[in-house]
Structure formats: C-alpha cells, structure tokens
Amino acid sequence: MARYGGLEAGGTKFVCAVGSSPDDLSEEVRFSTTTPAETMAQAVAYFAEQHRRSPLDAIGVGSFGPVEPNPNAPDYGYITTTPKAHWHMTDVVGPLAQAIGVPVGFDSDVNGAALGEFRWGAAQGLDTFVYLTVGTGLGGGGMVGGKLIHGLMHPEMGHMPLRRDPEADPYPGFCVYHGDCFEGLVCGPAIEARWGKSARDLPVDHPAWALQAHYLALGLVNIILVLSPQRIILGGGVMDQHHLFPLVRAKVQTLLNGYIQKRQILDEIDAYIVPPGLGNRAGVMGAIALAEMAASS
Ligand code: ADP
Ligand code: ZN
Predict the structure, then answer these.
(1) What percent of the chain has pLDDT over 90?
(2) Range in 81-90, 108-117, 138-147 with the lowest mean pLDDT
(3) DSSP 244-274
(4) Quick check: helix, strand or coil at residue 24?
(5) Cβ(12) to ligand 1 under 6 A?
(6) What is the CA(187)–ligand 2 centre distance, in A?
(7) Cα(278) to centroid of ligand 1, in Å?
(8) In which element (H, E) is residue 185 found?
(9) What are the angstrom distances between the C-alpha of 253 and each of 59, 103, 240, 271?
(10) What CATH code would you report for 4-112+280-296?
(11) Which of 24, 38, 37, 31 is nearest to 8 (CA)?
C-alpha cells in the first residue's frame, strides 16, 4: 500500500500525518507555528523519522499563503507575501525535498482541502466546486473542470471586496490590506473584534450570527456568479457553528432572487452549501491527496 506524508501548514499550527486515505491515517502530530527555522525543522524531523521507519512515496503540503504553486516559477514552493511575522518568502518545499528526497506536492491549504474533498469527501464526482475555510483567516480554493484552480497564482477569494453598510455595521474590518474585505468582515478574529467576544462564546440568538450569515452569503453569491460551482463546501472553526448553515443558505437564495434557475439552488440548497465530508480532517487529508497527486505525476 502507498505511504504518503501530509503537512497541513497553518498560520497557527502545523499538522503532520502519514497515510493513504481517511481509513488509513496514522501518526498525526501537531506543533505551533513559530519561526520558519524552528517549525520547518520540526516538520523535516517528523517526515525524516517516518521515512526511516518505512519509506514514504511522496509528501504533500497544503500551506497558508499566499504561496507560489507554479513549478516553473523561481519561488515555487514558497510562502510568499504573507503579513505573518517571520514567514515572508519562506521556502517550504525545498527543505522537505532535500531532506527526504521524495516528490513533494504543494498548494494552498484550501486548494489542498478541496482536493481531499474531491478524493474522499463532499466533492466526489464533481468537477467544478469551491472549498472555503472560515477560521483565523478566510480562504477559498477549488476545482474548475476537474483541475485545481491555478492561474497567476491561486484564488484569493477571502479578499474580495464586499458591500458593507457602515450604519448597520460600523466595524471597519480586520484585514491589514483591505479592512472590510470578505476575510476582514467574517474571519474569527473579526467577529471577536466586532463583538468583544470570541465567536465560540456568542450565543446562538446573538445578532452576530445574522450579520455573519449576511456577509457569508454576499461572498458566496459572488463566487456562485463567477465560477458556477456545482457545490460549495464551508469548513474552518467558525463553521463549527452549524446553525449558520441554514441562515447562509436562505440568504443566498434571497440575494440570488431567482436569477439562477437550478434545482440545486432553488430546491436542494441543503446539499449545495455543505460542511466538509472529511470534517476537521479536510486539511490534513488534503495534504495527503496532494502527495498522492505528486506521486502519480
Ligand atoms: P485556523 O484557521 O487557524 O486553521 P480554525 O479553523 O480553528 O483554525 O479557526 C480559528 C478561528 O475560528 C478562531 O478565530 C476561533 O475563534 C474560531 N473558532 C474556532 N472554533 C470555533 C467554534 N466552535 N465556534 C466559533 N468559532 C470558532
Ligand atoms: Zn483583505
């Protein structure tokens, strides 16, 4: 059986695992994201030890970004223009490839998670879909026509501008680049800054959730109109508030206002906007899926 390493490189923590499918996932370890020197050394040590025990066929990395996923670019495999302290222009693929000597697959964390959902989760059988995570930040990836979306780099759906009514919502937004972009309005830290309380601790009947659903629906409608996805998967810590799903679905229908006459939107929206099939393992399984793809290419 194949043996792949998966690294979910997040801005808060790195999660490493070995396996070949959700039924065969072992040895998961996690450590805090500190400096590149320290954190990359921990990741390299983990995979080197796993490779010594029993050879790995490939490693996959789904990383916080922005990243450079184009193998022909000089900074391929790097985390590039992140505002995260210490991590600007950090080579992630290089140290792993050099130390372990196996193919390394690399993409944004959300493109990786999308691939994992395509392989084993809620996007099986689809060819055009989006995976969005709402957590410390907000990121979106996915496939169009059966291929992970790449172009100039990778999608940055989290930073699309949204319409905000300053009277109804005076909070100016959390994004260091744009203020009230999609991420700036709906990520976990934005909720906490706006309401003075962590999203975890806001009761279900708090007005925060209607506003959250409103912004999420605005973002999703833009994505639906631009990419025409067959399904949208919403993951990340904030979406653990499952009561958000019906609110978001209803607002998406209201905002589209009958314009898209498709049963998936009109009658079957419960199956159109869904949580990840892989649950909170979408990230690390996505990294394993990136390894599988690297091994076969
Ligand atoms: P990350 O984005 O760092 O990988 P998460 O997806 O867990 O990690 O996102 C963390 C953010 O999500 C924090 O801002 C936190 O407040 C929020 N969060 C985590 N769990 C929950 C929850 N159960 N309910 C609401 N918000 C949550
Ligand atoms: Zn932004």
Answers:
(1) 96
(2) 81-90
(3) HHHHHHHHHHHHHTT-S--HHHHT-GGGTEE
(4) strand
(5) yes
(6) 11
(7) 17
(8) helix 182-186
(9) 41, 44, 22, 13
(10) 3.30.420.40
(11) 31
pLDDT of residue 297: 83
Residue 83: per-residue pLDDT: 83
236 lines ligand 1 (CB under 6 A): yes
Q: Which fold is adopted by the domain 122-275?
A: Nucleotidyltransferase; domain 5 (3.30.420)
pLDDT band at 19 (very low <50, low <70, confident <90, very high): very high
pTM of the model: 0.96
Distances from the Cα of 290 to the Cα of 32, 111, 166, 187, angstroms: 22, 9, 42, 26
Distance 80 CA to ligand 1 centre (A): 24
Q: Per-residue pLDDT for 27 more than 80?
A: no
Distance CA 74, CA 68 (A): 9
| CA distances for 113 relative to 32, 100, 131, 266, angstroms | 20, 23, 7, 27
- Tens-place pLDDT, residues 57-112: 999 999 998 999 999 999 999 999 988 899 999 999 999 999 999 999 999 999 99
Contact 152, 141 (CB under 8 A): no
| Numbered ranges of CATH 3.30.420.40 in the chain | 4-112+280-296, 122-275
Protein residue closest via CA to atom 13 of ligand 1: 188
Provide φ and ψ at 14, rounded to 5°.
-105, 135
